[in-house]
């Protein structure tokens, strides 16, 4: 864990404290110490730092190993006299605004230094190149100063460095990269924290900075002058958790492989000049904060994949040219708090549905084109719709008034204070005690909170801080937060730390509190004000002051500093991290996937909603028989209704089914990455309690086979069959020619073509499909599987599967459409029968004896339809057309039949007839949908 590496030096220091024996201070150490800190505003007791236990100075066996003097109001410049402190491991001079000038080049002589913390001072000049010789350095915090010049390339020599923070300085130049014998930051493969925000860095982001060897978790390059494109190599740094590239001058498209960063929790790309399409981030299941506002993306429909980001708390997409309707599913994301979509081109009707997330605090859709809002219950969250056409209608005033700024959070007393004020300049604390608190500002560089005004976020910060201080046994009574502001997506909150048992801290208390806040591993910093209310405790001459030795005693008592290390290691971004952890189970559901059962590796998803077993159980009424709409070799299918009102079909595999496990994996992987109106939609899945369930969109009019056989009661005339053929062909063409890599279905048949309420056809059942990843060969060598009668004979003989194998099956389906006969019926094969009976010199090619009587009498384009079907079933795949060609030919045939293929395939009111006794059954609700497939090998034929 990264925090253990960052603070490993602390373990060394305080283990040494545990076994230290007091001795006279080394002469070189004493001389260097007195010279280095000659500008202290107070005087230490005694002449010997180690023997007399000087405050803020840690010793071991007479050597000075730590200097921690945060918030001591130090003034002046650091002297060059570092050389004598050869055993110094920690130097923390944070929060001393009076420290000015350059860091002396002699800092490079501190070869034992592990922690150099100079944050929140007023140092200036260039960071000395000699820092690159501190090869034991683990933590380097130089943030919130006035450093200028370039980043020293020599920092690349610090191979143990884990934390590098130069935020909020005036650093210029490019990010240094190694070149020949010159070091660079790409050499820091062990460094996890790159905090470079709010500087003046220029030039491109070097592609060499990222590789699969890097272990970085924070990349903060915001608020600089970086140019060029985002390098695709960024997708190799898969350990990243936070990326901030906002407020730069970046251009070009966002790399398509960015969604490889599946551990990412926060992504900010706003305020750049990025172009191209909005990047698809499907699969980023830990992503909680997303902001891509103020860029030059192309006009695009509102991305449906937003609704798959289960950990999302904040979505900000302002000025991004989004169009279309916002899907209701977005508002049911389990962690969502804030949605900011101002100044886009969003249209249509705004609905939240009945299952909107109770965590929602703000939905800001100002200046869009929303024409209607359908409010449901009285919403507890803020809705802002100013500047939309709907605001011209009466009754919407509540949502169409300018937003008032959020009132800043302020910690309230835990109970009513008898005396609600303090005398003099003391401050009233949350526990109603008056004291001089330690005051400063917490700055969150990664916006872990939604900034929606939710008090629970701030309360979680308070709880974290108190847990931290108590684990260290520090003299802290309570903390309070106030005056929160957001500047450049940096959340700044005023912090007051109140002392325990007295009205002020002594110096040791400030050392410890300041050291705890400056040595942290989260994406926040603390900038303290000078503390000027110290309680002076006189000490006997020559005695070690108890307050001075507290840093050592406190570190050893009960292993309190070890508790600090473990606490830091376990806490990341406070409440936001806890929310992400609650979503971990949802985003990593396959921990118990057993690869030994022949089901292959763990499913690799590109976005699919995970349902809990309890959710499925509830929406199917505990898997009641009334909702059982089918069963077969794979398992059972149930009808269900989600809380949103959406009807779904739930295919529940038999437990301990090896075949079911493989088909479950295959279908889940494929349907999670394909989206087309003529491919059945996957709503989600359930994989827990030993269950494997797939949740599909409900397709109400059953399978094509049921309609052709008369079982569904739906009468398909010639026009409707042409429409079914066109929709099915378009679905297959999408799989073959637009999916990447191409998908071969391998089991096209009438059972796997489903009809929706408008009789639009959808290709279904992907349990046998294969990816055509090897484009050079153009085929996949695999065991022969498919369904008797539809199977490509070339594939059967060679075991080489191609897209043309699906084309053959589709040709058989076309002949089934005109005949309503099974491909093999009474020992006769439909392909052979058509070829025997066909006579092109006669009307309808002399096929009247094979035609379905319900086709009707007007069969425009019939001959060309048969010609196309027979081309599809040519013995050689090379002689068969591609599915894209098939689509175009069916469109031409429809025009011969007097139909408009565009209107017909998207008709909103297709009509059909049902017999008086016919009933429309569920598409998955028949045994044949499971049992008609058989597995083949060249020498055997056996049931699957």
From TrEMBL:
Pfam families: LRR_1, PK_Tyr_Ser-Thr. CDD domains: STKc_IRAK. Residues 1-23 form the signal peptide. The keyword Nucleotide-binding applies. Residues 623-903 form the Protein kinase domain. Residues 908-921 have a biased composition (Low complexity). It is found in: Membrane. This is Protein kinase domain-containing protein. It comes from Vitis vinifera (Grape). The lineage of its organism: Eukaryota, Viridiplantae, Streptophyta, Embryophyta, Tracheophyta.
């Amino acid at each position: 864990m990264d925090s253990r590496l960052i603070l490993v030096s602390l373990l060394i220091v305080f283990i040494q404290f545990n076994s230290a024996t007091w001795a006279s201070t080394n002469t070189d150490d004493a001389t260097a110490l007195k010279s280095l800190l000659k500008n202290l505003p107070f005087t230490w007791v005694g002449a010997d730092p180690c023997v007399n236990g000087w405050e803020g100075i840690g010793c071991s066996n007479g050597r000075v190993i730590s200097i921690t003097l945060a918030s001591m109001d130090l003034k002046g410049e650091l002297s060059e006299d570092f050389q004598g402190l050869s055993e110094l491991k920690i130097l923390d001079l944070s929060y001393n605004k009076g420290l000015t000038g350059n860091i002396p080049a002699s800092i490079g002589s501190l070869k034992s230094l592990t922690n150099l913390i100079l944050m929140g001072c007023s140092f200036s000049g260039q960071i000395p190149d000699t820092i690159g010789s501190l090869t034991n350095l683990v933590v380097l915090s130089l943030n919130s100063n006035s450093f200028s010049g370039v980043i020293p390339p020599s920092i690349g020599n610090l191979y143990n460095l884990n934390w590098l923070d130069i935020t909020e300085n005036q650093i210029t130049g490019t990010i240094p990269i190694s070149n020949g014998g010159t070091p660079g930051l790409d050499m820091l493969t062990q460094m996890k924290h790159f905090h470079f925000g709010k500087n003046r860095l220029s030039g491109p982001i070097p592609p060499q900075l990222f590789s699969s060897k890097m272990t970085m978790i924070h990349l903060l390059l915001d608020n600089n002058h970086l140019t060029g494109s985002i390098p695709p190599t960024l997708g190799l740094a898969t350990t990243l958790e936070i990326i901030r590239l906002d407020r730069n001058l970046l251009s070009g498209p966002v790399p398509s492989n960015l969604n490889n960063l599946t551990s990412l929790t926060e992504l900010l790309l706003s305020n750049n000049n990025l172009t191209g399409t909005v990047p698809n981030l499907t699969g980023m299941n830990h992503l909680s904060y997303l902001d891509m506002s103020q860029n030059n993306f192309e006009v695009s429909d509102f991305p449906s994949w937003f609704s798959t980001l289960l950990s999302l708390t904040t979505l900000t997409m302002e000025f991004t040219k989004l169009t279309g309707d916002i899907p209701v599913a977005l508002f049911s994301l389990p962690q969502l708090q804030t949605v900011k979509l101002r100044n886009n081109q969003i249209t249509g009707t705004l609905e939240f549905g009945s299952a909107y997330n109770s965590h929602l605090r703000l939905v800001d859709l100002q200046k869009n084109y929303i024409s209607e809002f359908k409010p449901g219950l009285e919403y507890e969250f803020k809705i802002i719709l100013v500047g939309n056409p709907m605001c011209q209608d009466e009754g919407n005033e509540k949502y169409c008034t300018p937003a008032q700024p959020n009132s800043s959070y302020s910690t309230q007393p835990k109970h009513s204070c008898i005396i609600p004020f303090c005398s003099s300049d003391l401050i009233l604390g949350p526990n109603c005690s008056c004291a001089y608190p330690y005051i400063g500002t917490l700055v969150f560089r990664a916006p872990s909170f939604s900034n929606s005004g939710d008090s629970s976020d701030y309360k979680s910060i308070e709880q974290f801080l108190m847990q931290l201080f108590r684990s260290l046994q520090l003299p802290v009574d309570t903390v309070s937060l106030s005056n929160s502001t957001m500047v450049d997506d940096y959340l700044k909150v005023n912090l007051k730390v109140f002392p325990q048992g007295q009205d002020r801290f002594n110096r040791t208390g400030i050392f410890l509190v300041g050291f705890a806040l400056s040595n942290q591993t989260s994406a926040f910093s603390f900038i303290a004000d000078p503390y000027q209310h110290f309680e002076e405790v006189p000490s006997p001459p020559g005695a070690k002051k108890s307050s001075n030795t507290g840093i050592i005693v406190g570190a050893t008592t009960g292993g309190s500093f070890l508790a600090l290390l473990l606490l830091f290691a376990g806490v990341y971004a406070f409440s936001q991290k806890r929310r992400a952890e609650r979503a971990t189970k949802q985003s990593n559901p396959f921990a118990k996937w057993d690869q030994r059962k022949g089901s292959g590796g763990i499913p690799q998803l590109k976005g699919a909603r995970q349902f809990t077993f309890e959710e499925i159980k509830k929406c199917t009424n505990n898997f009641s028989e009334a909702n059982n709409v089918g069963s077969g070799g794979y398992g059972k299918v149930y009808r269900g209704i989600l809380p949103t009102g959406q009807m779904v079909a739930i295919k529940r595999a038999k437990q301990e089914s090896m075949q079911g496990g493989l088909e479950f994996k295959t279908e889940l992987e494929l349907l999670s990455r394909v989206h087309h109106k003529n491919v059945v939609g996957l709503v989600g899945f359930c994989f827990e309690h030993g269950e494997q369930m797939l949740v599909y969109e409900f397709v109400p009019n059953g399978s094509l086979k049921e309609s052709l056989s008369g079982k569904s009661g739906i009468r398909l005339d010639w026009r409707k069959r042409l429409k079914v053929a066109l929709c099915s062909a378009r679905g297959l063409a999408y799989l073959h020619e637009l999916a990447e890599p191409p998908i071969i279905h391998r089991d096209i048949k009438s059972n796997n073509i489903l009809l929706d309420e408008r009789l639009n056809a959808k290709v279904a059942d992907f349990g046998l499909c294969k990816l055509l990843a090897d484009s050079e060969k153009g085929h996949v060598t695999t065991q022969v599987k498919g369904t008797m009668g539809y199977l490509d004979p070339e594939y059967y003989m060679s075991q080489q599967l191609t897209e043309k194998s699906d084309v053959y099956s589709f040709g058989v389906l076309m002949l089934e459409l005109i005949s309503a006969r099974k491909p093999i019926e009474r020992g006769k094969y439909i392909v052979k029968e058509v070829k025997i009976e066909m006579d092109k010199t006669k009307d309808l090619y002399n096929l009247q004896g094979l035609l379905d009587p319900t086709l009707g009498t007007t069969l425009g384009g019939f001959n060309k339809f048969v010609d196309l079907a027979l081309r599809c079933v040519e013995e050689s795949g090379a002689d068969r057309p591609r599915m894209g060609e098939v689509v175009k030919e069916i469109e031409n045939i429809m025009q011969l039949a007097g139909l408009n293929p565009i209107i017909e395939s998207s008709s909103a009111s297709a009509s059909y007839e049902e017999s008086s006794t016919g009933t429309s059954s569920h598409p998955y609700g028949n045994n044949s949908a499971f049992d008609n497939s058989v597995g083949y090998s060249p020498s055997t034929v056996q049931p699957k």
